[in-house]
Amino acid sequence: MVDKVIVIYSDKSNYGNSDDRITELVFTSKLPCQWINLEPDPKLPPHQNEVNKRNFGIKIAKEQGFTHFISGDMDEFYKKDEFEAEKERVEMGNMNGIVCPLHVYIKSPTLFCREHTLVPAIHKLYHNTQLGNFMHYPFNRDEQGNCHIDPCRRINCFDRIQMSEMVMYHLSYVRKNIDLKIDNSSANLRRSRQIIYDELSNAAPGYMSKLYHKPMEESPNYFNIEI
Questions:
Q1: 223 in a domain, yes or no?
Q2: How far apart are CA 120 and CA 96, in angstroms?
Q3: Phi and psi for 47 in degrees, rounded to 5?
């Protein structure tokens, strides 16, 4: 599906917390990945460290001669058939990239909400490609001025980018230990801790999410995730 996976990892989070499981994963993993360490700068805000991490990965991809890239996190998934179809569409259409909607999963890999957020997916890689808070990135804002794309992921490319029907499946709140997510997320989830607890306690099909203001829906366990 892709030619290479480059994993940029750190032993500490953006808040200085460490987890030995990261080191264990790096040294025991049999996945065909290239693992590269980049520690966050404690003097920088979490958002900037996230931008630096993604741009470091892009730098490595440029050095290795890749033509396209997709920036993602460990809890983000795509269906293989949808991804392959969009990959071919980008290449055959000489497009610079695609943007897709996402479903965020809560408590279970079969329970999700439809998100207003959009995510840049497959993009062409140029010598000057960068990620950051590029406000004029297509689909960043709607007509009412509401932002829909994470400022860590906006790309300095402004044309030949199309909306995709491919979905990104974000298993954001499917965790054995949700506090690790809350305490270390660059999105500053600490202020929403109690809401997240309530969300997980009440999670069920049809429940109106307090986080996303939409009813939760069921889906198959597409990626055979176990928790």
A1: no
A2: 11
A3: -60, -45
